Amino acid sequence: MSEFAKRFEVMDRKSFLKNEDEQKIHDATLEVMEDTGIRIHSAVAREALKKAGAEVDETSMIVKFPRSVTVDLMKTIPKELVLAGRTKEYDLPVDGTHHYYTTDGCGVFVWDEKAQSRRDSVLEDIRKSAIIGDWLPYLSIYEPMVVANDMPSEKHVIYEMKEAMENTSKHIETESTTTAKEARAQVKMAADVVGSVEELRKRHYISAMVCTVPPLILDGHATDAAMIWAENHIPVHITAMPSMGLSGPATIPGELIVCHAETLALACAMQAHDSGAPVLYGSVLSTMDLRSGGYNASSPEAAILGALTAEMAGFCNIPNSAGGIGSSSRIPGVQASMENGIFASIAAIGGSEIMNGIGMVDGSTVLSYEQLLIDHEIAAITINSLRKIEVDDETLAVDIIKKVGIGGNYLKEKHTLKHTRNFYISKLIDTSGYESWVSKGSKTLMDIAGEKADWILKNHQPEKLDRDISNKLEKIVKEF
């Protein structure tokens, strides 16, 4: 395991549900999948599931899953995987002992802190956010954060993927993919980077987010793309997003059943299409805003659901990327940071392995470079708060306690020098005192975060792709 991956090792997590309650939710889900079924708009997925023993009605496109079929297909899901970086230094074991963070994706605006307004996102924002993401020590995975509104709409996904590959060595997750054609092009790009399609099947350099459509629907184009990912063993973060009271029941167990059913349905479709295809249980759940009927990711219910979906993934022995940072605050700042801090800590304690995704506000539609730095600070504090605690002779420090004695001071001890090197030091928060803060210009956290983002862009040079590979990617973009 690389030193980078060791940075994200955490202690055993806590359960919020009793094991018997997890079993009840799982059993109820299998009942819904068998009796009500899932409407699947992908003919490829329906055909694969039919061959596996599911009941398919081609007229309604409803697929019903006999319990035995679901159970058998779930057995072929890999229990562990490694999300690879461009270089092995950034390989990430997903085995239940780590807690990783991604950026968020699909934003269409960028917040301008100086103008206090937002603008359309462009391809340059992918380059900048990828460079920042490459530098950030507690960001594990880069996801192209915005839509390149200055690129042709039919090609923006491919442009964004190339820009990401050029500007970070970390694992890349794609979110904007909506067609099989886009998926094929990205497979080809990733294969060129790692050397071949065969190597890509073994070395998961990219992964993909595929969203289901609540309640109980799998979109046709997105599911067709998932079949391409499955064929090439690209890990898929299956992301169910029912909203309590609107596209899911107004109770937490009921919401979990809809989420669980959609997730298992797509996972089973992928296994039926290509057995052993890697998947992640990647839910991001919310509640309905009772005042408007809109999306509300800021509720306490949404916060606990992030942890509970991680639990349900663990119950099924499926790697997870459950939960998420994605404030409903319309602008970056205090509200977004407060919500994200709470959500990150609860989901992390509950067992989230991959937390999606820092740097966005307003329901993941607006990129803020300042919020990206602040959310990274939240991620760093969360991870360091959950570090494994080693209890041995060295850490018990009995000899040192006896040596210093009553009323002594530990500052001069070599033991202190050695272990204070493990203390987390914030890259943003000024702890020097009020007078010192004033003398430095009385800067707010947003001010400091913006300056840090500018510093990274000025000083950090990501390791570039080999020129021949870069030219191959450019050719794929042009041909697309």
Set out the fold topology.
Blueprint: H1 3-6, H2 19-35, E1 38-40, H3 43-52, E2 55-57, E3 62-64, H4 67-74, E4 81-83, E5 92-94, E6 100-103, E7 109-112, E8 117-120, H5 123-135, E9 141-142, H6 156-167, E10 171-174, H7 180-194, H8 197-202, E11 206-211, E12 217-218, H9 220-231, E13 236-239, E14 243-244, H10 252-273, E15 279-281, E16 286-288, E17 295-296, H11 300-315, H12 334-350, E18 354-358, E19 360-361, E20 366-367, H13 369-385, H14 393-396, H15 398-404, H16 414-420, H17 434-439, H18 445-459, H19 467-479
Parallel strand pairs: 1-12, 6-18, 7-20, 9-10, 10-11, 11-13, 13-15, 14-16
Antiparallel strand pairs: 1-3, 2-3, 4-5, 7-8, 16-17, 19-20
Helix pairs in contact: 2-10, 3-10, 5-6, 6-7, 6-19, 7-9, 7-19, 9-10, 10-11, 11-12, 12-13, 13-18
Mind explaining what this structure looks like?
By secondary structure, this protein is of the alpha/beta class. It folds into 2 domains: 3-16 and 79-385, TIM Barrel; 19-74, no CATH class. The chain has 19 helices and 20 strands. It has helices at 3-6, 19-35, 43-52, 67-74, 123-135, 156-167, 180-194, 197-202, 220-231, 252-273, 300-315, 334-350, 369-385, 393-396, 398-404, 414-420, 434-439, 445-459, 467-479; strands spanning 38-40, 55-57, 62-64, 81-83, 92-94, 100-103, 109-112, 117-120, 141-142, 171-174, 206-211, 217-218, 236-239, 243-244, 279-281, 286-288, 295-296, 354-358, 360-361, 366-367. A 5-stranded parallel β-sheet has the order 9-10-11-13-15. A hairpin with a 4-residue loop joins strand 7 (109-112) and strand 8. The model has no long low-confidence stretch (mean pLDDT 95).
